[in-house]
Amino acid sequence: MNNNVWLKPIMMHRRVNGLKPILTDHNIHPTDLKINKMKRSAENKIQILKDAIRKGIDSGIAKDFNAEKHLQFLKDKMKKSN
What we know:
Strand content: under 5%
Shape: elongated
Low-confidence stretches: 7-12
Largest sheet: none
Order of helices and strands: HH
Structural class: mainly alpha
Mean pLDDT: 77
Number of helices: 2
Helix content: 40-55%
């Protein structure tokens, strides 16, 4: 098997007159498939994050929220966990 060409399993692989087959969308290297899958996954995560940020912005400002009290609560919680 030629290491430079990857074909779909249903396609036959062979050289014709010693020439290398032309790469098409049917001949994709497995590394390219993995990179494309990782890229789609990253794009999906980015879209989920953007949607969550938009939902938070659209929800408005919290009422009866004391930022200093909440910050102190978080600091106390961190001290207890350490």
